[in-house]
Amino acid sequence: MRAITRWAAGLWVIFAPALASAACPLTPAVNCAGADLRGLDGVGLDLTGSDLHGANLSASELAQARMAGANLEQVSFYAANLRAADFSGARLAGANFRQAHLEGANLRGADLRGAELSYSILDGADLTNADLREARLVLIDLRNVRLDGAKIEGAVWTTRRVCQLGSSGAHCIEGEASYKLPSGVSAPGENSAK
After folding, report:
1. pLDDT digits (tens, 9 = 90+) for 13-36
2. Beta-strand runs (E) in 46-155
3. What gap in Å lies between CA 28 and CA 117, rounded to an integer?
4. How buried is 10 (Cβ within 10 angstroms: 0-12 exposed, 13-18 middle, 19+ buried)?
5. Is the dihedral of CA 102, 8, 93, 169 positive or negative?
6. 65 compared with 164, residue with greater pLDDT
7. Do 75 and 55 meet the contact criterion of CB atoms below 8 Å apart?
8. How many CB atoms neighbour CB 174 within 10 A?
9. What is the DSSP string of 21-87?
10. Cα 105 from Cα 125, distance rounded (Å)
11. What is the pTM (predicted TM-score) of this model?
12. Which of 103, 100, 108, 67 is nearest to 83 (CA)?
């Protein structure tokens, strides 16, 4: 496996690749809770239904990985490549997606309560019916993100653009805004963030 270099918080960070051990074979429905898998090269990996809660997958290459229905609570995906990954129905409460690439990712019905999504790239991601309550979305552009039926109560969203959430994403104009989305907001587009 190769070392992965990422630009993070103004400096280059080099993550040494992690090796899957015999005690943690990365297959569907595996239990690798708390495993240190930083820098994993797992493009297209199938972890459907697995239990990886508390694992460290920072700076991993997991594009097109399948993690549908997996327990990924408190997992660190910091600066990971998760393009076109399938997280449908996954438990991701408290997960760290800071600076992750989630372009085209399927997060339909995912539990993202309290997740850290700041500085991540979500272009083309599908968050239909996802639970984003209390999630942090600092400097996130939601214009090309599907949010139909998403739960957003208490989510904190800060952007360089003033945006209004809608069922097909967000409509934005230039400006500066920070929102704590109010309780009682059950789906984007029903109430405007002010």
Report:
1. 434 444 444 468 889 999 999 999
2. 136-138
3. 25
4. exposed
5. negative
6. 65
7. yes
8. 7
9. -TTS---TT-B-TT-B-TT-B-TT-B-TT-B-TT-B-TT-B-TT-B-TT-B-TT-B-TT-B-TT-B-
10. 5
11. 0.76
12. 103
List the end-to-end C-alpha distance of the chain, in Å, as a whole number: 47
Phi and psi at 30, nearest 5°, equal -80, 155
Compute the residue count for the chain. 194
Give CA–CA dist 8/13, Å, rounded: 6
**pLDDT for 109:** 98
DSSP secondary structure string for all residues of 9-27: TTEEEEEPPP---TTS---
**Alpha-carbon span 82 to 59, nearest angstrom:** 10
Cα–Cα distance between 81 and 42 in angstroms, integer? 10
Write the pLDDT tens digit of every residue in 141-165. 887 899 999 998 888 877 655 455 5
Q: What is the enclosing helix (H) or strand (E) of 77?
A: none
Pair type for strands 156-166 and 169-180: antiparallel
CB burial of residue 175 (10 Å; 0-12, 13-18, 19+): exposed
Long-range contacts of 95-102 (CB under 8 A, 24+ apart): 99/6, 99/8
Q: Which of 67, 57, 124 is nearest to 97 (CA)?
A: 57
- How is residue 154 written in tokens? 């208490």
Closest-CA residue to 1 (of 15, 30, 13, 36)? 15
